[in-house]
Structures are given as structure tokens and as C-alpha cells.
Specification:
Number of strands: 6
Structural class: alpha+beta
Order of helices and strands: HEHHEHHEEEEH
Mean pLDDT: 89
Shape: globular
Distance between the termini: 37 Å
Low-confidence stretches: none
Oligomer: single chain
Strand content: 5-15%
Helix content: 10-25%
Radius of gyration: 21 Å
Number of helices: 6
Largest sheet: 4 strands, antiparallel
Length: about 270
Amino acid sequence: SSRPGFKQRYGNTLAEADAAIGEIMMSLEEHGLATDTLVFITSDNGPANVASVDCDDIGSVGPYLGYWQTQSKSRGGGGGGGTAKDTNWEGGHRVMGIAVWDGVISAGRVSNALVSTLDILPTIVSLAGKRLKADRSYDGIDISALLFGKTEQAHETLFHPASSTEISAIRYHNYKAHFRTYGQQPCRLPNGTHLPVGDAIVHDPPLVFDLDQDPAESEPIDPGPKVMAEILRSFQAFWQDVNSTFRSVTSFDEDPLYRPCSNTSSVCCRLKA
């Protein structure tokens, strides 16, 4: 592309992804597999507005600005920082979700149901006629009925971790509650510098936004005692479930051999070439 800066590098990346997905879809058609194949198209996070990335190489968060975090403390905000990848602002984890199954899923249908990539595993297992092991809890649910247009219901609550020991935000219906707000050091400017990162701030009670009315998360609200009580109850129930269910004791940080990998040239790979 002859387009400069962002439009060249990021735009070309999107074009490559689009072409690769197109080749897969055409191959399914050519081999008569389209009616037998469920295809999920999604992403693992929002734009990489982080210190190690040039600002020309990141995408747009659209309306999901995490505006409260970007405002100065003197104006009641978080003092700055990137509000996309590696944060729990909407721009960090809200991504597209596309499901295609020729002749099974209605083309062009849009749903506002609350779902997660964690739902893919239970859904695939269910469609295969199998059951997940019953000795542990799963954060994902079977969303096949949603995909097939039989319901518009999915999750009531999603939990957004900041680490393996912290849930810093909860989504409850149209409400988003932040127990701790933070930003990332923003992308690298052409002169090699970065905009301010701001501070991590603990909120008790949590900072709540109505995402239906305020997708930019700019103005915290008082959701009322009933909604707040349900948010806090869900938070406590989540940790009770985590602490009572099956948990792996493997530390992926201690030994590279523990790390899951499909690169056959890597020391951590357990697959045969």
C-alpha cells in the first residue's frame, strides 16, 4: 500500500487477515464442507495501545474509550494511560464475534447477548454430543441455542481478571463495575516518548458505568442498591466457586516445559513433528 503510517501498516494487516479468512471459507465451499463446519472469527483483545508498540501500528477502540481513565485526577479521572489491550476497559477486551455455519446459522443476524470466547469450548463439546467433566466449574456456557436463533439469552455476568488472583471488573447486564481501575503505558510516539500512564486506583464500592448509555465509560453512576448488591453478591460467589473447584497447580512461569505450545521446534512442545 502507498498509504502512509497507520493506514498502511495496520490497514495492510487487516487486509491480510481478511484474505486468509476468505481463503479458508472458499476452501470449505470448494470441498463441500461449508454445511458441516462451524467457523468462529474473533480476537483475543482490543488494540495494542501499550508501550512496546508504535502508535502507527495500533487500531481504534471505536466508542470504547475508557474515557474516565484518560481524564486528569483534578477532573476526577484516572490520570491517563492506554485503555485498550491489557486493561479491563471495554476497549481492552470487547472484540468482534462472528459465527458462520452455512444453512444452520441465519446469515446477517446480530445479537446483543453477553458472550465470551470461554463459551467456545462448552459449545463445541455440546455440538459434538459430549459432556464436560463434572468435577470442576467452567466460566463458559453452551451458546448453541443463541447461535441457532432459539434464544437471545446468554450470560448475566462476566468476570474480567487482571491476574490469576484478581478480578478487577465485572460486567452485570448493561452495567460494568470496576473494583480497580488502571491504564497501560501508552503506545510509542514517533519521538520515542509516551503519554502519561496514570495510577491504579482501588474502588470500594466499585466504580460503575451503564454501558448501554455510556459505552465510553466516561461518567460513573449510582446504579441503586439492588444492582450494587447483585454485583457484590456475584463477585463473592465467583471467588467462592473458584476456591472450591478443581484448579491446576502447574506454574507456567517456573519451567518452559509446562507451557502449552504447538511449535515443534520449541523446547516446550509436546507434539510430534
